[in-house]
Amino acid sequence: MDPGDKPIYRLIRGTAWFFCKILFRHRVRGHENIPKEGPFLLAVNHSSNLDPILAGTSVKRPMAYMARSTLFSPAPMGWIMRNVNALPVEREGLGIAGFRAILDHLEAGGGALIFPEGTRSADGRLKRFKGGIVRLANLAQVPVVPAYISGAARAMRRGNRLPRPLNTEITFGECIDKEVCSEEDNGLEVLRKAIEDLVQDDHRLPPI
């Protein structure tokens, strides 16, 4: 059984999935590319606070993700965050604490969601990727699944507190084998290209 596969997680995920389908008519493509078992990293573009919800509910296996430690208080909120497999870190990004928490989860056989850009994009376009995800994949010796969420930036722009009922979609690309990440620069380039290929519009993307 995957780590974090608890009844409360399934309940929260099912409820969130229902609202995503109703509010955003959320669609999922390429679900067959998600490994059915074993550890893996899910690399997703980041343009909205909706992204963790849209990505997490689109994967049938329980996913872990990093969240700022300040989001774990007061106590009731901390209980919810832990039961949706959030891993507290002191700051955004793949710092030492984030690496250790994700590595422990991967070693237990679970899947983890990572945003290669680190922070949200202000205009919805892909930003520069940071090398942490490739180093993490290499250390844990796990494959990486690229994914692209479209529509989230319009449904809930940066700075907005409430979402708008606009269509969203996530596309999962073909799994990138762990050997590809043995060299950081090459692994990052392959991952970037894989996510670019999933982009459905003609945004001009900045280089790595």
End-to-end distance, in Å? Answer: 37 Å
Rg calc:
16 Å
Domain unit count: 1
Please state roughly what percent of the residues sit in beta strands, choosing from under 5%, 5-15%, 15-25%, 25-35%, 35-45% or over 45%: 15-25%
Order of helices and strands: HEEHEHEHEHEHEH
Structural class: alpha/beta
Largest sheet composition: 7 strands, mixed
CATH superfamily: Glycerol-3-phosphate (1)-acyltransferase
Helix count? 7
The CATH class is Alpha Beta
CATH architectural grouping: 3-Layer(aba) Sandwich
Shape: globular
Neighbour order of strands in the largest sheet: 1-7-6-2-5-3-4
SSE arrangement:
Layout: H1 7-24, E1 27-29, E2 40-44, H2 51-58, E3 63-68, H3 75-83, E4 86-89, H4 96-107, E5 111-114, H5 132-140, E6 144-150, H6 152-155, E7 169-172, H7 184-196
Parallel strand pairs: 1-7, 2-5, 2-6, 3-4, 3-5
Antiparallel strand pairs: 6-7
Helix pairs in contact: 1-2
Question: What would you say this structure looks like, in words?
Answer:
This protein is an alpha/beta fold. It has helices spanning 7-24, 51-58, 75-83, 96-107, 132-140, 152-155, 184-196, and strands at 27-29, 40-44, 63-68, 86-89, 111-114, 144-150, 169-172. Strand 3 (63-68), helix 3 and strand 4 form a beta-alpha-beta unit.
